[in-house]
Amino acid sequence: MRAIIFSWEYPPRVVGQLSGYVSALSTQLAKSKVDINVVTYDDSDTGQTQEPSGVKTFRVANPVRNHIGVLTWVLTLNQEVERAAANIYYDSNKQVDLIDVHDWHFIPAAVTLKNGLGIPFVYSVESLEDHRSPNAISSYNLAIKSIEWLGFFEAERISVKSEWMKDEINRIYKVPKEKITTIATDPELWIEEILKLYNRVARTQE
Amino acid sequence: MKDKLSVMMLSWEYPPRVIGGISPHIYFLSKHLAKQDVKVYVVTCDFPGAPAHEVIDNVEVYRIDSYKNPSPDFATWVYLMNMNMQKETAILTRKLADKIDVFHAHDWLVANAGIGLKHVFRKPLLVTMHSTEMGRRDGLHSTTEKMIHETEAWLTYEAWKVICCSDYMISHVKYAFGLPNDKLVMVPNGVNVHNYDGGNDLREFRSKFALPEEKIVLFVGRLVYEKGIHVLINAVPKVLSKVNAKFIIVGSGYMKEQLLNIVRSMGLEHKVLFEGFMDEATLLQLQKSADVSVVPSLFEPFGIVALEAMAAQSPVVASDTGGLSEIIEHDVTGVKVYPNNPDSLAWGITKVLLDDNYAKNLRENAYKRVQEKYDWEKIAQQTKRIYEGVLGEYSKSFWA
Description:
The complex is a heterodimer of chains A (about 210) and B (about 400). Chain A is built from 7 helices and 8 strands, in the order βαβββαβαβααβαβα. Helices cover about 45% and strands about 20% of the residues of chain A. By secondary structure, chain A is α/β, with parallel strands linked by helices. Chain A has one domain (about 1-200): Glycogen Phosphorylase B (Rossmann fold). Chain B is of the alpha/beta class and about 400 residues long. Chain B has 2 domains: about 5-190 and about 375-395, Rossmann fold; about 195-375, Glycogen Phosphorylase B (Rossmann fold), CATH 3.40.50. Chain B has helices at about 20-35, 75-95, 110-120, 135, 145-160, 165-175, 205, 230-240, 255-265, 280-290, 305-310, 320-325, 340-355, 355-375, 375-395; strands at about 5-10, 40-45, 55, 60-65, 100-105, 125-130, 160-165, 185, 215-220, 245-250, 270-275, 290-295, 315-320, 335. The longest helix of chain B is centred in the N-terminal third of the chain and has 22 residues, at about 75-95. The radius of gyration of chain B is 22 Å and the shape is globular. The two termini of chain B are about 10 Å apart. The mean pLDDT of chain B is about 95. Chains A and B meet through helix 2, helix 3 and helix 5 of A and helix 2, helix 3 and helix 5 of B.
C-alpha cells in the first residue's frame, strides 16, 4: 500500500502536538510495510528525502512570501502540496492508494487530488476551529470552518482520537457518526486500527 | 491521438459577469478559437440568473459557485474562489478523461487554480497578463499589494508562455517579474468591427446629443486620474475658440464631481455632457456618430477604446503613451498628442475637426488597420499557433 500524509507540521518543524504524532504514525506505518510519504511545509529545507525509518518526506515552501493572514498563507501553499503529491503519484506509476490529511490546512489540495486523480482521502482531526477559537464568528474564522466543512463533506472517512471529538464533529458539522472512526489510543491496537481504516479507504478507489 | 486541440480557459469574469476588460476578451477569444476548430471550455464565476453550464458560440461555459466561503477581504476571497474553481475544474477535466491539452489562465485572479491544475494533470499552463498590481498601483505599497505581486510572479514563473497585449506590457512584465525574453509573446487585443455594421443613418440619433452645427467630441472611460479626463476638460475652451463642438463624456468614476465643478465654473455646461454609464447599443451608435474620439490617458496598458473608435470609423486623438503609442500611427491611423498636455490635446482635436480630408484619411486607414491587425479571427489564429508551439515542446518533455 502507498499512502501520502499531509501535515503542516513535521519534525524538525514543531508547532503543536501534531508534529510528534505524525512522526510516530509515519514511522509505525513504514514498519508495517506501507510506502509512506509525508508532504509537509518547511521554509527553507525543501525537497525529497528518505529517513532511516523508511518514511519518505517531501517538504515544500510557500511561493508567496508576503501574506495578510494565515488563510492566504495556507491557500497559496496548497498548490505546492498538490505539486508534491502529483509528483509522488506520477513517479509511482499512478499508484497512490490514499491521502491522510491532518487538520484543515491542506484540505483544499486533498479535495483537488481526489476529484482530479481519484485518490480518496481520510481527514484526520486533531482539533477544530470551534475549539481553537471558541465563539469566534468573524468571517476569517468562518472561512476556516468552511474549509473544515469541505473536508468532512469530501473525505471518504474521518478519523478522530476520541469519542468526544466524534460527538463534536457530529454536533457542529452534522456529519453522520457512521462516517467517523475513533482510533484506539492503546499502543497495541493503534496502528492496526489505522491500517484497517487505510485498507477500507483504499478499496474505494475507482 | 485525439482529434481536436482543447483548451481549458480560466477567468474570473465572462459575460454576463463584466467587471473589466477580461470578460469581453475571453468572450471573443474563445468564440474565435472555436471557429478555428479549437474545443474551448471556459470556467468562470457565477452571475445571478446565468446558468451553471451553457454552450455559447460553440464554447462550453461553466460557472462555479464563487461566493461559497465567508471571506474577510477581497484578496482572501480570490484565493478561496480559486479553491472552488480548482475543484470544479478538476471534476470537469476528469470527466473529460483528461482530454484537455492546455490550461490558459487570465491574470492573478485565477493563479492558484491554474498552477494547481497544471501539476495535478501535468498539462502546460499559459497565462495572459492583462495588467499588473505594480502598474495598477504605481508601485507596491501594502502587504496586500506585495502579496498580489508575488502571486503574479509565481503565475508567470509556472506558465509555459506569458502572453501580453502590447509591446509596452511585454517590457513592463519582463521588468516586473524578471522573465526571460523567450517566455514572452505579444498578441494584441482585438475588436469586432462587425459590432459597428448597419444603421448608418445616424442623423436622428445624433440629434439627441448635439445640434446639427456642432461636432461631436467623444470620451469613453472611467473618470479617474490615469485616464486623463481632466486634461480633456482643460482643453475644452481651447477647442471651442476654434470650432463649435459638443463634448460627450461616457463613464463614471471618483473624479466626476470635481470635473462637473470645473465645467460649471467655466460656464460650459451646455457644451459638455456627462452621460455616466451607457448601454452597449447606444454606445456603439455614439461611437459611430463621433467626429473625433479622444483617449487622453496618462497610463494605458493597451487602450481598447482607441481600437473601438477605429472600428467605429471615428478619427482618434490619443496621448502618446503605453499601448496607445503602438496602436496609433501618427498622421496615418490617428493623431498622437503629448500626454497630460491640454494645449497639445486641443491642437489634435482641432486639427481633425477643421480638416475633413485629413479626418477622412485617418478614418479609412484606421479602419483598414484594425481589420488587418486587431481582428479577433487573426488573434485567435495567433493564439492557436502559440498553443500548438507549446504542445510541440511539451510532447518532447517527460510530462508527455
